[in-house]
């Protein structure tokens, strides 16, 4: 171990189906480079990754556990560096139960959008996030065929 404290975060890739289109919830940060991501945040001491993902989704998007169906057979781990420190982000997939449910932003975000894969990928920018969205799309299409 290099002595660098690894940063750890968790969140949910939330989607909804509108007619035949799969749309993903992306939220724009109200700080730094105003990047777009699904709801996520840092894991607090004593908290599991999934507990963090659920808490952060509630805090950042106003969506509680009753607002979506967690698809826990899809879990994606992203690893990258932030300001020279290794970071791991775990995402689960979740389907919004009520497609017209209102998202309520915290002060951490300034805007949100429901977007199909191509638009979501162009806003997401980071290769790891784009591949997570692409894998989510493939998984949802197979999942929906069941």
TrEMBL record:
Residues 128-146 form the POU-specific domain. GO terms for biological process: AMP biosynthetic process; ATP biosynthetic process. It comes from the Eukaryota. Keywords: Hydrolase, Nucleotide-binding. GO terms for molecular function: bis(5'-nucleosyl)-tetraphosphatase (asymmetrical) activity; DNA-binding transcription factor activity; nucleotide binding. InterPro entries: NUDIX_hydrolase-like_dom_sf (IPR015797), NUDIX_hydrolase_CS (IPR020084), NUDIX_hydrolase_dom (IPR000086), Nudix_hydrolase_domain (IPR051325), POU_dom (IPR000327), Tetra_PHTase (IPR003565). Residues 5-137 form the Nudix hydrolase domain. It holds the Pfam family NUDIX. Belongs to the Nudix hydrolase family. This is Bis(5'-nucleosyl)-tetraphosphatase [asymmetrical]. The lineage of its organism: Eukaryota, Metazoa, Ecdysozoa, Arthropoda, Crustacea.
